[in-house]
Each structure stands twice: as structure tokens, then as C-alpha cells.
## 1
Amino acid sequence: MNPLTLTCLQDEYVVLEPLSLDHVAALEAAAADGELWNLWFTSAPAPGHARAYVEKALQGHADGLMLPFAVREKSSGEIVGTTRYYDFVAKLPRLAIGYTWYAKRWQKSHLNTACKRLLLKHAFETLDCVAVEFHTDHRNLDSQRAIERLGAHRDGLLRAHKRRPDGTLRDTVCYSILASEWPDVDRWLGLRLQRLSGAQATTAGD
């Protein structure tokens, strides 16, 4: 039995829906906002490749290694990106959160904080994970800062760890949050989310 059961996670800001082929067209449109496939550090699919992207994620779930989600922004009802659990180790259990990207207009908003809080809550409080990992390209300083703002601990660097889409070798920066750290991280993310969503609402009203 696959412990990574398909489930829907949501709060007042966002809905994380189990990824399916029904999301292909919406993900194509979301990736087009900012032409995200041209960014060397993102996993967003290029035009015409969203179906293969989704199928590969679904195979990861069938293999018991991944749980992929489509990200639906709640106020607009639009699919604006995707994220997933991956590298699931059932014996501990332990997993990583990643493969995350959002349409350009939602980057640097409250959306990422809302998504990460939902994913961390489910990982620690439902799946009983002992730790959650985050991995990012050593050149992607924005991603590193975003992970550190979640309260994650920088564990180290895996050199020549994997290849980027363009074939170049990437060093991977590794972070983690332990189960014992989750209550404090949860409180911090709740406060941060209130502040960011308030600022977003003020900007939208200007």
C-alpha cells in the first residue's frame, strides 16, 4: 500500500489538489506567465511538454516516491503552479518538498508560504515524518533565501549532484526541518502568512 495517499490540502489562501492529466492545459498557461521554462533553475515544462511532465510525476506517485499537487489560488480559482513531495523514505518516514514553481505574477507573494505551511503540516502531523528536506541549486540564491525564511536548517552541499535541464552539472544545497522544530516553524509561518497576505491585499487595493 502506498502511504502517500492522494489528498487535497487547503487553507483560506490556496488549494493543493492531487495532480492529474486534467491539469495539463492550466499548467501550460501558468508556465507561460513568465516563460518559466527559460529559467535555468526551474523545472517548469516547456510548451507542449506539460502532459509528459504530469505523467512522469504520476509515475513517481505510482512508484511510492512522490505525491504531486497542482496549486490553485483560492481567490481567483486559477491553477497557478505545482509542487510535490518526493524522495519519500517510508521506513523513517522522511521526504523532500520541491519541484515547485508558480506563474510569475504569484512569485514573491504569500502563496509560497501558504503552500509550504500546508505541506509541512501534512508531512509532520499526518504522515508522521521525522524530517522534511529541501534541495536547491547552489546558484539559485532566491530559492535559498526563501527556504531559509521558512526556518529550515542549512545542512550542507552535495557537489556535482545532478544535471540541470541544459546538461550542466549542479551543486545542490540541502536544508531540513525536524519534527521537533515543527511547532516553532508553524507559529512563525502563521505570523509570516498573515503579514504577507495583508500586504498583498493592500497592494491589490491600491
Note: The first strand starts at residue 9 and ends at 10.
## 2
Amino acid sequence: MKISGVDIRPGNIIEYEGGIWRAVKIQHTQPGKGGAYMQVEMKNLIDGRKNNVRFRSAETVERVRLDTKDFQFLFAEGDDLTFMDKDSYEQITLPRDLLGDAAAFLNDGMDVVMELYDERPISVQLPDTVEALIVEADAVVKGQTASSSYKPALLENGVRVMVPPHIASGTRIVVDVYSQEYVRRAD
């Protein structure tokens, strides 16, 4: 489906110069002279390269629709992650760097959504938030106010996050997978 260059939105998948790209950030600019354009920061979904491109309103790009399929994470072996198709029970192994920092939050049996282009896995989407156990939390420094101070804490998966002062070691919390930030205390 063709769309105008100024209609690109963050998260859109487009075909550009023979590659498949995800729009990460956009900025609409209307200079005093000349026509308006859209400055788009894009990430190549095949090789991970980043690119900044200006699209004028007269330019069109091909918007790509990716197929999505439900998979279940089975296990990690070195830098390889193994997933199982929930419909056909076929297993697929992908490199850890396809998921980036979010790979640290994978748990055995976790349901994920895989995006495919021409039957080839392009990206894996985890749930937005997961529960994690704090194994180590720094002590609160006396005199800090609770309203704006956070302290570092180490999660069971080795990820460091900033948490409010009242959160102690051994507490289960909810963490945003993609920003790696504390959301709330788990129920």
C-alpha cells in the first residue's frame, strides 16, 4: 500500500531502497522557504542499520504489512533463543540480538508475538510489562525525600533498574520491558 512521505508514523514498516525499515522517530518540519517535509529516523529490520531520511509530501513509499504469529519461548542456548509455533509446534531458533535488551526479560513458556516478512522472522514482541524479583537493592540514604529519589536495584535476570526507596530486596515488581523502568509493586 503506497502512502505519502508525510503520512509516515512511528512504528510503520516501510520498504525503502530495497530494505524493510521500521519508522522509529518522526519530525514534521515546515521551513519558511520550500515545502514541508517529514524527517524520519528508521531502523532496518533485517540488518539493524539506522538511517535518517527526509520525505517530501510528493514522495510516496510502500507501507509493508507484516504477518504476525503467536509463539512460545522455550529456552536459551548461548546466544540462540528457541521459540515454538503455538499452532504447528514447529521450533525456530533466532539470535539473541534480534530482541536486543528485551531478551533479558524472556521467561521459559512466555508467550510472544513474532512478526514475519515473507515467512522470515523480523522481530519478536514481548509483553509490555513483566514481573521480576529484586535480588539486591541499595540502602536508602537518610535525608532523601521519597517523592523524587530512586535507588538502584538488581533484578533476578541481571538487569539494573531504579526503584523507589521503600522497595527492598526480595520484592516482586512490575517492569516495563522496553524502557527497563519500574512500573509498580507486583500484587
Note: The chain is about 0% helix and 55% strand.
## 3
Amino acid sequence: MALVLHSYWRSSCSWRVRLALNLKGLSYDTVSVHLVKDGGEQHQAPHRQMNPMRELPVLMLNDQPIAQSMAILEFLEESYPEPSLLPSTPLDRARVRQMAELINSGIQPIQNLRVMQRLGRDYDLPKPEQAQWSKGWIEFGFDALHRLVEQHGGRCAFGDQVTLADLCLIPQLYNARRFAVDLSAYPRLTAIEDELSRLPAFHAAHPDQQPDAVST
């Protein structure tokens, strides 16, 4: 099955999927969709046909698109179960999904580009205040996540096995730095980041390693 990932180098949701593809040893091609150029290529007709929500990533399976990163991750887990990105018991799987959704639903959407643009366009909020607003939501979510990791984490967010929670955590730490979050308040999260950064799959998925990366 041919896999083609439509992504943007700094999209945290695309990053999650790159991590899953790499960890499962799957070959895929990448098509860049620039989120800012020409008003955002995600708003143009070819991408809207694949994903009416005009978001990234989209994983093409031959000619069939799957959108929404968590749906893609669950598809990959079901279709390519080894190595598994979920624990073995239902309760532990629920805890991992709780951590992943804390980021996916509770942090990332509030600080993404579309929200920031609307804060400026519709509410006249200057960019520094937009960033401060988003920073506060990241900190709110990390306060909760750090407590969960202290309860259930090991070398990874949940125990010592890489799971969907780690795939969401690592990109969100990158975003947190962009918004000047003081990560010294979350030592368990940064310790996991240090541990996982040594793995080739994580290095290859980093934004700086992507074909459409630009210097910042």
C-alpha cells in the first residue's frame, strides 16, 4: 500500500504521524502543504477535497485520504500493530489515550495557527498578546499532564514503552518553546524528551529534518 503524507514541517499534528510511521518502519512519501504561503495552501481546492476541515495532516492510502492525526494514528496501530503504540490492558490504553487527548484536544487546538489568526483578525489582539494567551493554555495543560506522568510515567510518558502519548508530547514541547513556556516547571516531561531524542525514529521526524524545513 502506497502511503503519502501531506504535511507541513512545523505542524505538530503531522509530526505525530511521522513518528508513528517511523516507529513502525513504514515507507512513505511526503507532500508539503504550506500553511502560510499564498494565504495557506490548506485552503485551496485540492487540499479541501482531501480534508474539508482544511487541516494537516492527511495520509493518503493509495487514493483514499484519512485526516485528523488521532484517527490516522489509530488506523496505523490497527493496520500495522507491531511495534504497538498502546499498552496491553484496556485500562492502561485508556490512560495513554487520556494523555494523548489532553494534548490533542486540550492544548494544541487553542494555540494553533487558525486560532491565532482569528484572535488578530476578529478581536484585534496584537501578536504578542496572542502568544501570551496561547502560552497560558499550554501551561494549564502541562500542569495537568505533568501530574499524570508523575503517576504513570517511566522513561516514557506511560511506563517505559513509547506510546501515542509520547507522539503527542514531543511536538507539544517544541511548540511550548516557541511560546516561551518555562519548561523548568515540567522536569518529567523534558526528561522524557531527552530520552526519546536518542531514538532514530524521533530524530528523523523532527521538523528540522523535513524536506520543506526552513531556517528560523
Note: The chain has a mean pLDDT of 93.
## 4
Amino acid sequence: MGASLIIITYNIQHGRGMDGHFDLERTGHVLVTLSPDIVLLQEVDCRRPATRMSCQARELARILNMDYAYGVVKRYQPGSYGNAILSRYPIRSKKNHILTGGDDRRCCLEVKIKTPHYNFTCFNLHLGLKSAERCRHLEEVVLPRLRAVSGPVVLGGDFNARPESAEINLLKGYLQDSFAANSGECCCTFPADQPHSRIDYIFLSRCWQINDYRIIPHTLASDHLPLIVKAACRGS
């Protein structure tokens, strides 16, 4: 079995905290204190005036000394918005799958990551606000991509769906929900100041041994709380 990885998913809300202030350094500090190996980020800006023209994926990768990939879902004049994956290990390839649906475009960023012990595929997903569209995006785009991967898989992100939903049950047929290893007192990820919903997830293929799961409470750098999982791959 390879060494354990620390994997985080975090919807950073463009670096804007519950106090309404934009502070990407604060976001970076939250991540640094968790010492991650892999970070899945949603609601990431690049070169937008509202967030000081920052390339947020690149800036957070610099703070954490990581490689990164950024997937655009919406383009503006100027700038863009999407998902990002940061990795302590080299990212070997990137694909960005656009999830269409009216005006509410979403995306699923897919990367291949090479570690000293094994390679794996990582998906960073941000689903929409309508259940029917979430199910369709999973069935038509995400699940076919999962089935096409032969090796270890990590799938995480902001699913905008509760654990009992049809969308989450769809995924449980293919992957294990890391929440089963929860060792913390907090069980919900949103909203950050008074969390009452679990809508952020990290799923792993069956070849992973999940050693720990925690939602990090009392962190108001975003409207979501970060979720951290420690897992080791037992082989493909």
C-alpha cells in the first residue's frame, strides 16, 4: 500500500468570507494549516475585477508550493470562473468537462496525478441547483468518465445535494463516501457560520483505504467549510 494522501475539497466562494470581505491570503492560510497533498477548489476566479484581477488557482498553488490545473466554466470580459485542482505531485494531464443546462453552466475538472507509489485520476465537480440537472449531468457526463478509468479514482467537490438524494445514491453504486470514516463532531459543510447541510463530498474508488474524515469547523474564510480526508491506495 502506498503512503496516505491528505485530500481536501473546498468551495472558496472566490476568496470571499462570511464577513463579506475578499481575502485570498486568508483562504490560503486555511489550506496551509491543513497540510494537504491534493486540493479540490470550486468557485475559483481568474483575472476578474471583482476579485482584484487575481489568478486564484495560481496564487493558492504558489502559497502551498503545489502544481495546479484550472478548468474554466464561464468567461467574462475580462476574466473567467471555474474549478481548480492543486497537487503536491505532478499533474500529467487535464480535461475539463462542461455540464450544460440553461444559464447555469457547471463543470467537472479531470486530471491525472503521478505519485511515487501510484497514479490516479482526480475529478473536481461542482453541480448545479436543480436536482434533475444534477442527475442528468452525473448520468450523461460524470459516470461515463468514471467507468472509463481503470485505476484509482478520487471524486470530490460541491454537489449541492444532500446525502439522501438520488444524485448521491447514484454515486454510491460506484464509489465509497468517505464520510463513513468521520472522526469529527461536525457533520455539515454549509453554511459555514451555522452549518446544517452536507453538500460537499469526497468519494473514492474501492481500492482506497479511508483512514480519516473531518469537516473543519469555525472557518469563515468562505460560505462553505473545508472537508479533509486521509486515504491510502491499496492498488488498482
Note: The longest helix spans residues 131-148.
